[in-house]
TrEMBL record:
InterPro entries: Glyco_trans_4-like_N. Residues 20-181 form the Glycosyltransferase subfamily 4-like N-terminal domain. PANTHER family: GLYCOSYLTRANSFERASE WBBK-RELATED. This is Glycosyltransferase family 4 protein. The keyword Thylakoid does not apply. Pfam families: Glyco_trans_1_4, Glyco_transf_4. The lineage of its organism: Bacteria, Bacillati, Actinomycetota, Actinomycetes, Micrococcales. SUPFAM superfamilies: UDP-Glycosyltransferase/glycogen phosphorylase. Keywords: Glycosyltransferase, Transferase.
Amino acid sequence: MTRMRIVLEATSLLGRRTGVGQYTGHLLDELPAALGRAGVAADVAVTTWTARGGALHDLPAGVRQVGPRVPARALRTAWTRTDRPHVETLVGRCDVMHGTNFVSPPTRRAREVVTVHDLTYEEHRSTVSADSLAYRTLVVRALRRGAHVVTPSRAVADAVRDFYDLPDEQVTPTPLGVDPQWFTPPAPAPAGRLDLPDDYVLFVGSLDPRKNLPRLVEAFERVRAGRRDAPALVLAGPAGRDETLRARPGVHLTGWLDDADLRRVVAGARALALPSIDEGFGLPALEALASGRPVLAADIPALREVSGPYATYVDPHDTDAVAEGLERVLQADDGPTDRQARRAHAARWTWGACADATVAVYMRTD
């Protein structure tokens, strides 16, 4: 039997993992089992695009890192203008090349698959970097070559089809999952180590403008001004390192948290707030629900899809609406039955299902 060779771009696994890194890492972890379930004999490899190099550690058994040290910016600049270099020049023969972070490199014969996480680079251009704006060209060039698009949610799949006028069969949602560890109550951190207030609403995310943090902080201050018992606002993730926010009354920064500490902080929150202007999926909301916590979410398609009836929804463009939503989520029912219902909803989303859907795309012949 001829074995397939599948290569995934995994630069996002270098350093601390953001949302794309979490997606790529979990997909890689689940691929061997998903390929087995599909009855597919395949060799899986990963490549990174960085001049600094950097070995990837803790790859699944049998997964190899391949390819030379090549600066990502140089490759992307070349690929915005030409279909050279082919990816086979960098990683050798392959049957499927999966660009996990918007960029699908041109191939000689391999099937191109590209993950488009959202359309921020088109719909919110003023909020993204020059590197991200290059996706406007790179994605179009890949689509013209016939690349198959996978997305983290059905909401993004619909948006991509509409924006690029693509046929249904060229776009496949492969919804993300939640790590099973989120469903197990974490052990408390040693007293005082995380220096958290007793009562707090939590934000987990970056300082990306689409995350809408300034409006959340302003809405929080309005709530705090109106009630003496208002909880604190704790910022985690990249936003938890922004010292400019430390001086705001009632705002606490965690710094960067490892996975175990993040689960502790989420589990201890009164609620999680995610008032983003745009999201491709909204993994922090799903992880909070898996922890049994109430969620305040922006009323946008991806968060509606992921959180279902288990979130308090607000207009993310209206500070008054966000403040009112905070008041409502602080009063949300939070007994054992409510927490179990949130966990049961979150349990429907698994990384195994994400990998199964992705393997089905790899195996398509159209």
